Amino acid sequence: MRPLMIAAAALFAAVAGPAAAEIVSRSENAFTLKFTGRTALGPAGVPTALSQLPLWWDPAHSYSGDATNLSLDLSPGGCWCEKLEDGTDFDHGRTLSVVPGEMRFHAPFGPLRSMATKADLVVTYPLVDGVVTPTWTFVVEGPGVGAMADPVDAVMAGGFSRWIGHMNGLAGAGG
Asked: How many other C-beta atoms are found inside a 10 Å radius of the C-beta of residue 76?
């Protein structure tokens, strides 16, 4: 039994390798970020894992400072929301579409809300050589937003890594 557990752990570690992050393009008024990773979680579990924001979102990147106040409705038009202490809901973004292997969001997170004319997050999760390979592509356009590429990249990279870790935790727990 022990050799089987060791082999399973080695396979899990190989599948759950480090995430790659890249600023694909940048200009004065636009930037595109791309993050790619691997997870042992099957494709069917990826949307649910994304919607479990309280389990992986960094509370420091919320208005309330508490990730349990975040929610994500994956229905078209659904809200990526945060319930503030005073009872108001803050709309961080909207679900545009969810189809097998892809989710699209209008997501002008944080300071981008007042700057971006477009802030779209596309989440894909194809099977590559039998392994789910999630990717976030974040396209942001608007006057002067290019200067935000590096700080947004840092925040999004952290979020993507935590999400990959969350999915791998689910996979390791049999989820």
From this structure: 11
Alpha helices in the chain (DSSP H): 2-15, 46-51, 53-56, 112-115, 149-172
Q: Which amino acid is at 71?
A: S
Question: What CA–CA distance (Å, rounded) separates 4 from 139?
Answer: 43
Mean pLDDT of the chain: 89
CA distance 23 to 127: 24
Give me the residue label for tokens 């979020």: 159
109, 117, 116: which is closest to 153 by C-alpha? 109
Torsion of CA 118, 76, 165, 10, to 10 degrees: -120
Reading the block at residue 140, the tokens are: 């942001």
Q: CA triplet 93, 95, 96: central angle to 5 degrees?
A: 120
* Tens of pLDDT, residues 6-39: 333 333 344 444 577 889 999 999 999 999 999 9
Q: Is the pTM of the predicted complex or chain greater than 0.90?
A: no
Q: What are phi and psi of 72, to 5 degrees?
A: -140, 115
